[in-house]
Amino acid sequence: MPTRTQVILCWALFAIAMGLMSALAHAIIPPAIGALQSMIGVGFLGALMLVAWLCLAAYGYRPLLHRWLARRRHSRIRQGQ
Q1: Number of Cα atoms under 13 Å in the Cβ half of residue 59
Q2: How many helices (H) and strands (E) does the chain have?
Q3: Each residue's pLDDT tens digit, 16-74
Q4: Rounded distance, CA 63 to CA 1, Å?
Q5: Contact at 8 Å (CB) between 63 and 71?
Q6: Are 40 and 33 in contact (CB under 8 A)?
Q7: Is residue 26 packed enough to be buried (19+ CB in 10 Å), middle (13-18) or exposed (0-12)?
């Protein structure tokens, strides 16, 4: 079992690594997206990103949506009795 000092050092190392990754991503990704938009066109890239986000949202929120709809159906059945 790691000691408290080791856990704190591990979290500090993780925070430093994530900070460096964030700085690296902020340095690389915006110029790459700008170049991609100038090559493809903002309209097409925007539509492509919207479709990708909608697909991701539908996949990610599907269980939540099913639970919510099931609760609504269940409450309507109770009200009808």
Answers
A1: 6
A2: 2, 0
A3: 999 999 899 889 888 887 777 777 666 777 778 888 888 888 788 777 777 888 887 76
A4: 37
A5: no
A6: no
A7: exposed
